[in-house]
Write a structure and sequence with these properties.
80% of the residues lie in helices and 0% in strands. The protein is an all-alpha fold. It has one domain: MetI-like (MetI-like fold), CATH 1.10.3720.
């Protein structure tokens, strides 16, 4: 008993459960994805899966189309989300809490149920399911993920900088353009990351809101895994992971550059 208490009495030993968690649910799954991606059905090292992806026009077109849908959805979420986040950050705390709750309430419902409700809404309005319903459903499901990072970033912004710009004679538009907007870039970058990547990788929303007539990259990935094509599915997953890594790297470099410019200002 004393040995157990002595073992857990050391602070570094408390990290063991987290290490085991990362090993079981992060490192090993990623290792399996890499292994299956670079092997064929016989377990031999091969680049067949990546050649298959590059040689199939359908897979490439689906990937490019998914990126396009992701960009459109992200842009709409940014256009709708930034003003909402800005207004919330300027309101009194009691009113802000009410608005935050209103934005959170839909997130308490499972996204499949929300998507099915969206399907019923389009059916009630006699609007055919297609690209419009797909983009609408994406924006509806992922808009809060754009609002909250921007809101948190604007809420933490030092208001003395805005007051200083006003004292120097800047107009409200100049204050926003030269002070508020640059300082909110980290929040915008986080929001873009939290919307763009899930849109590309999702498949349930696309299946329900288009009656499976429009496929996204996540749908292609899911179909290959479901049909037992683990190697090709793993290669698609690795491509997705590389896209996430590149986007995250560009996002980090952009935030660092913004922070440096902010320090110079």
């Amino acid at each position: 008993m004393k040995q157990i208490l002595s073992f857990f009495g050391k602070r570094r030993h408390w990290s063991i459960p987290y290490i085991l968690f990362l090993l079981c649910f992060v490192i090993i799954p990623l290792g399996l994805i890499v292994f299956y991606a670079f092997t064929n059905n016989e377990g031999e090292l091969s680049l067949t899966n990546f050649r298959k992806f590059l040689s199939q026009p359908e897979a490439m077109n689906t990937f490019i189309y998914s990126v396009g849908i992701g960009l459109i959805t992200t842009l709409i979420c940014l256009i709708l989300g930034y003003p909402a986040a800005y207004i919330m950050s300027r309101m009194r705390s009691d009113r802000t809490q009410l608005l935050v709750i209103l934005f959170i309430l839909p997130m308490w419902v499972n996204f499949l149920i929300r998507t099915l409700a969206t399907v019923a809404l389009f059916d009630f309005l006699h609007i055919p399911l297609g690209e419009i319903s797909l983009i609408f459903g994406m924006v509806y499901n992922f808009l809060p993920f754009m609002i909250y990072p921007i809101y948190n970033n604007l809420k933490r912004t030092d208001q003395s900088l805005t007051e200083a710009a006003q004292d120097l004679g800047a107009t409200p538009f100049q204050v926003f353009l030269r002070t508020t907007l640059p300082l909110s870039v980290p929040g915008i970058s986080s929001g873009i990351m939290m919307v763009f990547m899930p849109v590309i990788s999702t498949f349930a929303i696309a299946e329900l809101l288009t009656m499976n007539n429009i496929k996204l990259f996540g749908t292609t990935l899911q179909e290959n895994i479901y049909n037992g094509m683990w190697n090709y599915g793993a290669a698609l997953s690795l491509i997705m992971l590389l896209l996430i890594a590149i986007t995250s790297l560009l996002n980090s470099e952009g935030n660092a550059k913004t922070a440096g410019e902010g320090g110079l200002l």
